[in-house]
Specification:
- The protein is an alpha/beta fold.
- The protein has nine helices and seven strands; from the N terminus they run αααβαβαββαβαβαβα.
- A seven-stranded mixed beta sheet has the order 3-2-1-4-5-7-6, sandwiched between helices.
- β2, α5 and β3 form a beta-alpha-beta unit.
- It is elongated.
- The chain starts with a helix and ends with a helix.
């Protein structure tokens, strides 16, 4: 086989198997682009129409341009975050956990496997389990087949397992996992009682001394409060203060990504320390 043809086929093979983690909140992204495009068209037409002058005309024109710029900007920002930003960010966030390489990991609301596959790559002697209800409104193309395809593309399929399960009632025994992670999932539950129930379930299946990491876009203080009440130690809320304020400003406080991490209390180790 000629070298050029071989290289071309190899590149084609890699392209077909490149992991894809979907677009978050696809309906909202479409809405932003729809509104932005509509406002832009109206603004361009109005700019060439023989409207009468005056403050009101100028104000309406400025408002139309403002809506167009804001909506298209937000749509583009969300699209970038889904396609590029979150893929880069996952490695930094998972780096907060002190991995040994043999952990059993649970990804609650794994979606198409963004955190699941990255966690699996850190545990060559362990395994990673993901659970989800596979709701397409939260992530485009959200189905278990896509998750498994991404695991194969990332080279970790041999230690990845996915299940259909509700985070409020995890189908695992107590003290099963060394690490539990979740990315932009818990906030989707409408009530505080349901969100706390999910945190309680995460704590239940986590081994003593295990790590829990929750990356989300709101309710961080609520998560910290609950984990502390559950006896977690080293509970931290990690956020970029500058970008947190910027994002809160441009999204009217509805989008504030941050991470809560804590360690389950290990009674055995604590008792041993007291004895010494």
């Amino acid at each position: 086989m000629p070298p050029i043809k071989f290289v071309a086929e190899a590149k084609s093979h890699l392209k077909r198997h490149r992991p894809s983690y979907g677009i978050d909140a696809p309906g909202l992204v479409r809405t932003f682009f729809f509104i932005g495009t509509g406002a832009l068209i109206i603004a361009l037409i109005a700019a060439h129409a023989p409207w009468p002058g005056g403050v009101l005309t100028l104000a309406l024109s400025a408002l139309t341009w403002l809506v167009a710029v804001y909506a298209l900007g937000m749509g583009s920002y969300m699209l970038y975050g889904s396609l590029i930003g979150k893929v880069r960010e996952r490695h930094r966030l998972l780096g907060l956990v002190p991995w040994t390489g043999s952990e059993t990991v649970l990804d609650v609301g794994c979606g198409r496997g963004l955190f699941l596959t990255a966690a699996a790559s850190r545990v060559p002697l362990g395994r990673a389990v993901g659970i989800d209800l596979w709701l397409a409104k939260d992530q485009s193309g959200n189905r278990c087949e896509a998750t498994l395809a991404n695991a194969r593309a990332e080279g970790v399929a041999d230690r990845v397992e996915v299940l259909t399960a509700d985070a409020r009632q995890l189908p695992f025994a107590d003290d099963t996992f060394d690490v539990v992670v979740s990315h932009w999932v818990v906030h989707n539950l409408d009530t505080k009682s349901d969100r706390w129930r999910v945190l309680d379930e995460m704590a239940r299946v986590l081994k003593p001394g295990g790590w829990l990491l929750i990356a989300d876009i709101e309710n961080h203080a609520e998560y910290v409060e609950r984990l502390q009440a559950l006896g977690f130690i080293d509970v931290r809320y990690i956020v970029s203060r500058f970008w947190d304020q910027v994002r809160a400003l441009i999204t009217f406080g509805t989008f504030r990504p941050g991470t809560v991490i804590g360690r389950s209390f290990d009674f055995g180790k604590s008792f041993a320390m007291i004895e010494r």
